[in-house]
Structure formats: C-alpha cells, structure tokens
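Handoff note, outgoing to incoming analyst
You'll be picking up this chain. Sequence as last confirmed:
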Amino acid sequence: MKALQDATKNSCGESYNDLLARTYLNIMDQGKSCTDSAALAAEVNNTVDKTKTVFFDDEVMEFFEENELIDPCSGEKISDMLKNEACANQKTLTMEALEEKLDGFDYIINNISNPRINCLWKKLMNSNNNVICEQISYYEGKTELNLKIFSQDLNGQNAITWFDDRDGQPYISFDEGISTKCDIEIIKTMIHESVHAGILNIVKGTHAAGWGINDVPELKNYYDNYSLWHHEYMAGAYFEELVSALKQYFGNEYTDLVYEAIMWKGLHNTTAYRALPQSKRNQIENIWDQFNNSTTCKKSCL
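Most recent structure output, in case you need it:
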C-alpha cells in the first residue's frame, strides 16, 4: 500500500493511532477511498513493524500532550530529547520505560495557562539563563527536582513559591495580573521565584543519602541566622548573580543601574538593601516608580 509506505517514512516519534490516522489521510489525498476502517487497521497492523516505526506508545503520547516537561538548562522539551533517543535506538518508548528515564532528569513541568506569562517563560527558558539552570540543576546527582509552574489569580501578589511535602517538590504560581506588566518586571519575577524554588529544594527536597543544607555553608549561614533567610541570602550572597541573569536576558537594552534596581524590588526589606546609602536607594526607588507608571516600557508576547 503506497499510502502506508508514504506515511511510515517519517513516523518516528508517532503513536500507532497517529500513524493510522495519517495513513488514512494519505489515502484520501491520493484520491482513493477507504470506508472500511477495520480493513485499514488490519493492513497497517500487518505491514508496520512497530519496533522500527513507532517510538512512543499511546500512553506516552498522551502523557506528553498533558505535561510539557522542559530541561531547565537547554530549554528543550524532554519529549523531543527522548523521542530522538528512541528513534536513534529504534526502540518504542513505553510508559514504564518513561517513568524510569524521568527519574534521571531534573525538569520543569509548565502548566502556565496565561498566554503572555507562558510566552515569556518559554523565552526565558530558551535563553539558557544561567540562574535558572543553576537553581534547578546545579546540585544534579545530589537532589532530584521536578519544578511545577502555573498561573492563577493571586489577588495582586506577583507570585508564590512553596514546597509540597506530599510529592516532595516545589511549585511556583504566577499571578495572572503580572501579565500587564513590563517584560523586565515579569522576567525578574520569574528569576526571583526560581531561586526560591532552588533554595526550597536544597532544604526540603529529595536528596542523595547524607546530603543536605549543611553541604551548602553559605546558605546554611543565612538559614541559621535570619528569619527571612531566603531573601537575606538572595540579597546578601546571590545578588550579583541575579542581576547578571537579568542582564543576560535583556543584554544592553537597559543600564546596569536599571538591572540592579529592578532586582532589588522584592528584596528591599533585607539587611543588604538597608545598608545601601540613602542616595542609592532613592535612585533605585525612582526607577521603580518609572516602571510602575510607564506606558511605553517593552511589552512583548501580546
């Protein structure tokens, strides 16, 4: 059957049902009819060597349709990575095999429903941002992290990050309302919350035997000595990395002072911020006001 041969030429990564449907369309495109779906199914079943042409079974396809899993460093979809591997190995990926493989990945499950927030998150992931990669994968081999992100109405709070003891993983939720903000403010929030998630993973996540916060002395110092230790650590020990991450994304679009000012927002109740000269804080807070009231700042993904 030529239609079947044509359909199976590029079937790598398809489910069997998808292959069947595409074969039917090929038949119709060739001006032929096939009213007997059972006969078509039998023809496909008898002709296709599934071990060589179909590399995701239907259960795996359904899983990836419902869950977008992203590598935190490359921004690549885990489904694409595994599909390429299955195609190269000429071996169908089953759900059981998928579950085993996912144990070896740090990944982000993207369930953001707001179109603009989702678009900007994907752009941040595709930028191979250093802080995102560090926080999610830096302790690879010592921690296992599967960060879940989504958006919802948080009544004006930009975002919240928490740890769910039931599944042993962190979550980030972005407020739907931030979708009206400037790009730089949204990207800052995403970087900021990713660091929260990384910290929670160190303190409460699934660890290799014997490994924990005591193995990260700088973070342990803030954990022991401050009540708001997440923000104190970010402002006192990790601030330069945060600013660099923002600049890495936007390049020379803004000045270094703007990058610093935007990143201080949310960390302004820390010891490090209060230690800045009043004149510097005035500069920073004036920049906050400019962006809060701006009608001309960059807003992409609209």
